[in-house]
Amino acid sequence: MIKRLTLAGSAKEIGKKHGELGKEQVVQSLDLYERLFHGYQNITWQEARERALVHVKAIEKHDPSMLEEIEGIASGAGVDFEDILALNARSEIALAGSGPSFSDGCTAVSVYPPLTNDTIIAQNWDWKGEQEKSLLLLDIEAVNAPKITMVTEGGMIGKIGFNEAGVGICFNALITDKKSDQLPIHLGLRAVLNSYSMSEAIAKIKQKQIAAAASFLIGYDNGKDAGMSVNVEVSPFGMDYVSGEDGRLVHTNHVLSQKVLQDLIDMNELRFEDSMLRKKRAEQLMLGALVNNERIDEDTFKSWLGDTYNAPNAINHFKNEAAPTHRQMETVFSVVMNLSKRTMDLCVGKPSENEFVSITQEGHYGVH
């Protein structure tokens, strides 16, 4: 089972405990990304650290406590600040240089009221299978921020999760030709999770604050029988809302917004035979449920995430030996978050092969 850590106190204290108790997972992340940066970008780890440093000014301007938390992780794990900073800027580092870009792939989905009773967001995280060993489930109780429950890679302070205010986030990486020195994507995810409402979350990402392109699927349920989700494509040039007018959201790993494409080129070389087909299949599954008047709940989402149609490039992704090495990904974990109930169902590994475990912010587990 995934290691679960409860982290509370100041940003430095939260980070230090993360580094101490999750040191094994931090080391796993450092090892993987050092090899990937060298193999794909032909850069050394020292060069990766230097690339990460260009983001310090933007992080400090946005939220200095993020740097303190990164410093704490480094101290707790016995590594350098620049090592942990490089992990948190790993998407931006991967998008620079002359080698092939690499990026985690995912299928993110949401259906919200009135099509469902609850606001539910979900996704598969498709990446290098060995990175399953780096996974941590964090409960974070920071000062002046809502309590967060988040699945992340060791050493990274932002990823996929929800908070006690009912805000949750899923995301898809997007490979494009440009980036900036602004806030790294994964710290943008944490910024959303540090928010008490949808409007606060959007305000933190709406301009040119995010250093690279990504899709943020954000849900918010206010606990008063009102909830919705939006899909935002962020970029160094601003953001745009995409799809969802009919209460359904699906995003994979290609850019949808024509506004975003005015400034960026989509560099995902497998978008036609992988990303676009996964999106179309997810939309087909959603439409089938609606046409057949099926009840859509957490179990429905689990079945969608476990779909193996068109394998290996299925929603439940299998490693494709025929793809370029840097694009050989598989589903590492799946998550379904009911923001109305403040619960998460988590499957480590492929949902077609493994069970989901229910998680609440109180820390109770239950196998579904």
TrEMBL record:
This is Isopenicillin-N N-acyltransferase-like protein. Signal peptide: none annotated. Residues 117-352 form the Peptidase C45 hydrolase domain. It comes from Geomicrobium sediminis. Pfam families: AAT.
